[in-house]
Design a protein that fits this description.
membrane, Rossmann fold, single chain, transmembrane helix, five-stranded parallel beta sheet, transmembrane, binds 2-acetamido-2-deoxy-beta-D-glucopyranose, Glycosyl transferase CAP10 domain-containing protein
Length: 503
């Protein structure tokens, strides 16, 4: 008994190893887990996504930041995190890719690319001698909203700033569909993108170190490289469906009236309140008898409420003349306007997108001077009404031009632009550690229901035919084109001057 008593440690001493230690251990495990959870939670809540989570608007073009439902913020954040990291399946196997390439190489169906593709050489000309180095990429980052790195057919995005509406998501979607269309053929590449409207790399100011930056438009005075804009895959905020669907319906709608049945007037419908002086001025031309023009205001808020019935593009081909006026910079509306087969009256544009450079005045559109706006519109309308068969042909050629830019050709343009650009890189692209891999599934997972619906409609699949064949570079050709365009525009100005008594 005595022995037992002696051997028994005092209660306090006994409880230390048996109760206290596990408590300390479990407490610290619990705190560690809580800390970890807190950290993970923090990371998740700060994950940047293509939908715009945790990104500020571009400082060079500020727009109201996206507002995400605060109540659901946490669940959205977790979803975003999950979408960003957890759902990319492996891409095509190397064997599949080789098979596809061999099939293309044996294919006899290689078509020449449309002439407008030749501009790819012009756009990349600043780097043919210096090539593109990591310094170029690091410097262009200062002007970029995101960076796209493609390695081995996998796409990585490094996000710096938010893009207005769903531009970033639809642009990346387009690239992912390109990878699907030509598996194993898109080379490794490292590209900086800005998604706002105005070109930024002035050729004079950046002459000593031209920077490669992709965006949706450019001018002759900028280095910015034009790339097909997001709306080719759809623009949910304005209810614009993917390009192939819109074109088909607009062309169909344009047939509802014969040329003679169409109103012998010029028509414009859009948003004049986009800091565009020319659109403001256009409002002054709203007089069907005096100026032969009908200028209508598009109210997207109202349209959204009424289910976009009034803004259907296929119902807007009832006039023989359709006006194109630039917005804050270029406008995505050009392709829809040209698709009507009416005479497109283009008000002397400052900006060009990748395809508008292929248009020729008096061949597939009618040039309208911005300095003498209403009389210039009136002159175009009078000319067309006096020369109906020529006017009709001009309209038809504009429509044919847009028809030749099917989605297949849009992908081909992207393919050749990226391929030519990648040839200039003097380093091996690899994704930065901050980049996330994006694939079709992870992007769809992130999209809101409406965007998702639009994205799914523009899904691509492996192409049965190879890309069109890109022509070789020819600097003289551009100079000739520019001269011919200038001459055609001057011809129209002369015609106008002769009809109008001087003074
Ligand atoms: C480019 O920069 C030069 C020099 O600062 C300026 O004179 C010119 O107007 C700029 N061009 C454009 C298109 O902004
Ligand atoms: C242009 O005139 C028409 C007819 O007078 C009118 O219905 C329309 O609202 C006017 N457009 C604008 C932008 O004021």
């Amino acid at each position: 008994m005595g022995l037992q008593q002696r051997n028994h440690p005092p209660p306090l001493l006994r409880s230390r190893p048996t109760y206290l230690l596990p408590s300390i251990v479990s407490l610290s495990i619990f705190s560690l887990a809580a800390l970890l959870l807190y950290k993970v939670d923090n990371v998740i809540l700060r994950t940047k996504t293509l939908a715009g989570h945790n990104l500020d608007p571009t400082p060079w073009h500020v727009f109201p930041p996206k507002v995400f439902d605060e109540e659901a913020r946490r669940s959205i954040a977790y979803k975003a995190f999950q979408c960003s990291y957890l759902t990319c399946p492996s891409t095509y196997s190397l064997a599949e890719q080789r098979q596809q390439q061999a099939f293309f190489e044996s294919s006899s169906q290689v078509k020449q690319c449309p002439e407008v593709f030749r501009w790819i050489h012009h756009d990349l000309e600043p780097w043919t001698k210096t090539r593109i180095t990591t310094t170029h990429i690091a410097e262009s980052k200062n002007f970029a909203a995101f960076r796209v790195v493609i390695v081995g057919g996998r796409l990585f995005v490094d996000l710096y700033y938010d893009c207005v509406q769903s531009r970033a998501m639809f642009t990346i979607w387009g690239l992912l569909q390109l990878l699907k269309k030509y598996p194993g053929m898109v080379p490794d590449v490292d590209m900086m993108f800005d998604c706002m409207d105005k070109p930024i790399l002035n050729r004079t100011e950046h002459g000593s170190l031209p920077l490669p930056l992709f965006r949706y438009c450019t001018t002759g005075d900028h280095f910015d490289i034009p790339f097909p804009d997001w709306s080719f895959w759809g623009w949910p905020e304005t209810n614009l469906r993917p390009w192939n669907e819109e074109f088909r319906d607009i062309k169909q709608g344009s047939r509802a009236q014969s040329w003679i049945q169409k109103w012998p007037q010029a028509y414009w419908k859009g948003n004049p309140d986009v800091f565009s002086p020319i659109r403001q001025e256009l409002l002054n031309c709203n007089h069907s008898t005096h100026w032969g023009a009908q200028i209508m205001r598009q109210n997207w808020m109202e349209e959204a409420k009424s289910g976009y019935e009034q803004s259907k593009l296929s119902n807007q081909c009832k006039h023989r003349y359709k006006i194109y006026a630039e917005g804050y910079a270029w406008s995505v509306s050009l392709k829809y306007i040209l698709s009507c087969g009416s005479v497109t009256l283009i008000i002397s544009p400052k900006y060009e997108d990748f395809f508008s450079r292929g248009l020729f005045p008096k061949k597939n559109y009618w040039p309208v001077s911005s300095t003498d706006l209403c009389p210039s519109i009136k002159f175009a309308v009078d000319w067309g009404n006096a020369n109906p068969s020529e006017a009709k042909l001009l309209g038809k050629r504009g429509q044919n031009f847009m028809e030749s830019l099917s989605m297949d050709r849009i992908y081909d343009y992207m393919f050749h632009l990226i391929s030519e650009y990648s040839k200039l890189l003097d380093f091996k692209p690899s994704p930065p550690s901050s980049a996330q891999e994006v694939c079709s599934d992870s992007l769809l997972c992130l999209a809101d229901p409406k965007s998702k619906q639009f994205l799914e409609r523009s899904t691509s699949s492996a192409s049965p035919t190879p890309p069109c064949k890109l022509q070789n570079a020819d600097g003289n050709l551009f100079r000739n084109w520019m001269q011919q365009k200038k001459k055609a525009i001057n011809d129209v100005e002369t015609m106008k001057a002769q009809k109008q008594p001087a003074g």
